[in-house]
Amino acid sequence: xxxETIWERLxxxxxxxxxxxxxxxxxxxxxxxxxxxxxxxPQTISLLEGLRKLKEGDVVVVNISSGVSAWPECLxxxxxxxxxxxxxxxxxxxxxxxxxxxxxxxKIVEKVPGFKGLKYGVDYVHLGFYTGAEPTVAQxxxxxxxxxxxxxxxxxxxxxxxMRGVNSAKDVKMVISSDTGDYGDYYIxxxxxxxxxxxxxxxxxxxxxxxxxYWPEIIxxxxxxxxxxxxxxKLIGEPGDATVTxxxxxxxxxxxxxxxxxxxxxxxxxxxxx
Amino acid sequence: xxxxxxxxxxxxxxxxxxxxxxxxxxxTIPAISAIAGxxxxxxxxxxxxxxxxxxxxxxxxxxxNVRRRAPGVWYHSAWLIFIFAFVLLLGFTxxxxxxxxxxxxxxxxxxxxxxxxxxxxxTGFYIASAAYRAFRAxxxxxxxxxxxxxxxxxxxxxxxxxxxxxxxxxxxWFNDVGQVPAMRTFLIxxxxxxxxxxxxxxxxxxxxxxxxxxxx
Lengths: 274, 216
Fold this sequence. Notes:
The complex is a heterodimer.
Chain A: H1 6-11, H2 15-31, H3 42-52, E1 59-65, H4 71-87, E2 91-96, H5 101-111, E3 124-129, H6 133-142, H7 144-147, E4 174-179, H8 183-195, E5 199-203, H9 205-211, E6 219-224, H10 225-235, H11 241-273
Parallel strand pairs in A: 1-2, 1-4, 2-3, 4-5, 5-6
Helix pairs in contact in A: 2-11, 4-5, 4-10, 6-8, 10-11
Chain B: H1 2-26, H2 30-67, H3 74-93, H4 102-134, H5 140-156, H6 159-163, H7 167-202
Helix pairs in contact in B: 1-2, 2-3, 5-7
């Protein structure tokens, strides 16, 4: 039996070695942060520009369709967007299609100092959880009260000052959706196209490319994953969780690229010999 | 005979609902809009019931595992039922705002959040290993995919710009010029497909949802 050459070995590195290398490379930035500069994409710039156009008292819906498992990717953008909405003095209505969405809402409130100066039910509200995917999103566009009769604490929405005169997409100035799946499409089809409500997307990195064809005509701005969050944090001048995450993204991406290149060098060398 | 009548009634009902929803989308007719709104509310209620059905089904499946003492499984099932009942009872202490209960909130914060994020993070390790194994420049197409992938990855990580200042620009080119037109084409074609599906459903020729092979 012939002995394995170095080129063959390069193609067969044990997966546990890759796991350990990745683990070590993820630890390094915690010990010694790299703090490399983040370049900002045009989609993030247009997102902030769109948010800055909001006027005092404009009603904005923030749809949370990402669970707690997606916090590292979506929460930084949700936090940064909420900060800007508060700066613009917009009225913010949160709702969620995820059972754990209330936790995301509470985390946003915890992480955005600006909420301390605002009054729940007057300046912002969380209406809670809805099921039913696209039909529900369509119904929310025509009659919010058909889906939500109370907020997530059980207060009837007619007793909430923020909901006075707000009952359909026509009363909302902007929708922002945080997604790990299809909800961005539902809001495009049921809110943006029929009612012309400006729509922005906060997605995990994986779905960024799915929504990119809609930018900038249909989606006025978007962020993808932690990188998008870091870009928005940089734009508003408030570095947060996503900026910290960037170091881990640097080291992990570099490992994957180096491993793929090494495997391909090995593959090319052995193929030539064959 | 009864089966045929029942089946045809389902097709007719589907066609009627399709017409109502399409008319409501394209025209403003108050009577139709009211019916469409009612139908959408029904859809929401039915999907909420589906959640309950899912919960009942979980209990049924795991109760059976416990009853039969399924080897290697039953104690996990028993634990699931116990946690299910425990969290449900905690939730009922304040049905409108369960997270006001400190124990409920503690479970969510310290078990659900941590486990959810761990599960999600672990996929990163699998992706690293899978990328290493799968990305081989076996032909010119695979080589192009590999090169584009590397540039897009380096575009998404700030270190790309540190390695070479032009990397984000090249990555963005692959993304904006290479990917976006292809995705737009795909979306438009899929939309036409969806339209065709809608018309076939309307005409009763799309019968897959009733467990039948679609008609010609």
